[in-house]
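Following up on my earlier thread - several people asked me to post the actual chain instead of describing it. Fair enough. Here it is, all 593 residues.
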Amino acid sequence: MFTSAQIISARLAPEGTPATVGSPAPSTIVRPKTRLVTVKMAGYDLAIPYVLTELTNGDAILRYCVDPQGALAAAAESPVQQGVKPAASAQAAVRAAFIAARGSAPKTQLEYAQEGVITPEMAYVALRESAAHLEFFAPKSDSVAAAVHDSHMGGKFQDSIEQGLCTYDAAAGVITLTPDKMAVTPELVRSEVAAGRAVIPANHNHPESEPMIIGKRFLTKVNANIGASAVSSDFSEEIGKLKLALRFGADTVMDLSTGLDDLAGLRSAIIRASAVPIGTVPVYEALDRVHGDASALTWEVFRQVIIDQAEQGVDYFTIHAGFTKDLLPAAAQRLMGVVSRGGAIMASHMMLNDSENLAYAHFDELMAICRKYDVALSLGDGLRPGAVYDACDEAQYGELKNIGELAARCKEQGVQCFIEGPGHVPLDKVEENQRLEDEYCHEAPFYTLGPLVSDVGAGFDHITSAIGGTNIAMHGTAMLCYVTPSEHLALPTPEDVKQGLICYKLAAHSADLAKKVPQAINIDHAMSRARATFRWLDQFVLSFDEAHAYEVWRAQMDEENCNHSAAYCSMCGPRFCPIRLNRRLQAKYAPKA
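Reply from S.P.:
Thanks for posting it. Predicted structure:
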């Protein structure tokens, strides 16, 4: 149906060269190799760059990576080894050929899916998701301890090549998947998009964005918020935050900038530099255009902002259209009232003008704009609870029911949409929120801010929210919006972005592990094997922040003498190490591999 030239050719990173670290320097050591490989699918003209990590015992791990070049850059900066050099960092127009093939009147991904068409974006997504499920564990374990781990898994970890799932040309760095044996097929992607259970945010005007999918049957995704304000940050810092967010695994990024003289210029720079979908909250800029006067906000101003941002290439809009006028009295009964910035703008406008929500009243026009550019609608929760005391009340669930009606209208009009969720919710109500979202919103993808399961985490709300995020993702939430340590306190710094993302990547990974997603199981098992055999360098590489893991270990170890091969850590030392005992235990009682 669609054809295109190969988008990305194989790009192998140079082999890692030995390097010395520390002072005084230890013996020469070599970091496990991290390289780019190209993943293909037999019968499709697609090629996707992927990161392959070759561990020191022969295991290899393919990890879903939103920014392969950033991963190589991180490897180059590793304190364990210098010398791994990333390729050029310029973001290519990956989807340019896909978009050009559609001509002057392209449809949305949802419209194509409903017509039975598998687009290149759908095939790309299927390949990208399936590659993350491949198992490249060494068939023979490197020790009795690792053999025991294999036997506990019932022989699950067999090489993907032996199973006929793929072929691997190691010299060329090319992995080719067998379509009918893929974990995620193009048809599965199409059917989930057609049913409204998944979205592929992909504005026709953002060709630099690599196709990705948000849905409960796929890997749990994480969004990172960035954005300058009139009192903090600037262009360079926000672009730096974007690059940092991509390096640490953000699957989408929302630009929430306000109050700048050149909002459009900053947004354009972010879109052109981003390999992931970019989202915004258009009402922020609309309020800026009327100089902060909510009473002066009109549909004409709001509509023009939406068109301008769609023209720039924004992939999804958060629109608080479900917060209708009849819900204002319910919000007034709360302790915290309205805590959403977008929701507060809508509430102010409704009260000052004694009118209905602008976005709700003009929703058909809004959908028409989104359909033209294939901008997905993130139906915002303007009444998300800002305190556990307010959770699951009439205001929150009343808005959710309204959003469900809007979601049904989006599906009828061929507009992709997903649903934003809370907010502050006690742990015992987290599953209920997912169940009701499925019921009211027809299983449209859920996208939650946490939820935060406690109100007392100031300075640590990335943790309180990740607890809720792990739980709700385990029950079906498709994407988590990260929360940083600065939540409730200040505009996030670059370090906050990093800490929030790592915390949320762990939450998403833990949820996928609970859902038995092979990608998550593979990485966890690789780490267990590395720990069981004291392969410290492999443990560092498998961590979400390699440099941090290394520095924590190095702070209390005699690196010069142990040379990263110590059969103990500083917690127990060599005399009291239980892992050493386990080696003797397994050598005596465990069956030989």
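The first strand starts at residue 33 and ends at 41. That should answer part of your original question.
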